[in-house]
Design a protein that fits this description.
There is one protein chain. The protein has 136 residues and is α/β, with parallel strands linked by helices. Helix content is 38%, strand content 18%. It has a single domain, classed as 3-Layer(aba) Sandwich (Rossmann fold), CATH 3.40.50. Helix 2 packs across helix 3. The relative contact order is 0.15. The C terminus is likely disordered.
């Protein structure tokens, strides 16, 4: 008698249509090829699921692997997903490929502008002199 297959959870993220079905097919094919028992595919049609929700789903199914298609938003933060899964003995894998110009950044980086460091006009020696005078 053989040992039970390791349990996996998939995550797909796309609006309805071919993109969503393509990701589901890729996750299912990967699980089948690797001999994994696919417990659930989390479907995120509106790109609203958080890492913690996916981790909780994996925990609920006692999954050892989360499968992320490269086109899904969470694939861009794979290392963070893996870090969150690690305490429970699980990990994640990104399947498929994206072209360099198709790679997306995480939503937080997209939403927040880069901070611009304040411009200083004083030379470093002037700043040190001002500090010394204030302290007296």
């Amino acid at each position: 008698m053989s040992a039970p297959s390791p349990v996996a959870v998939g995550y797909v993220c796309a609006p309805e249509g071919d993109a969503l079905e393509g990701q589901r097919d890729a996750v299912t094919d990967y699980a089948r090829t690797e001999g994994l028992a696919l417990a659930q595919i989390v479907t995120d049609r509106f790109d609203t699921f958080t890492i913690s929700q996916v981790v909780q789903t994996a925990k609920f199914h006692n999954a050892r692997l989360v499968i992320l298609p490269a086109q899904a938003r969470l694939a861009s933060v794979q290392s963070r997903v893996a870090l969150e899964l690690e305490p429970d003995g699980a990990t994640c894998v990104v399947i498929g490929h994206t072209q360099p110009n198709e790679q997306r950044r995480s939503r937080l980086i997209d939403a927040l502008p880069r901070p611009i460091p304040p411009a200083t006009t004083a030379a470093p020696s002037d700043a040190a002199a001002d500090t010394m005078e204030t302290a007296r």
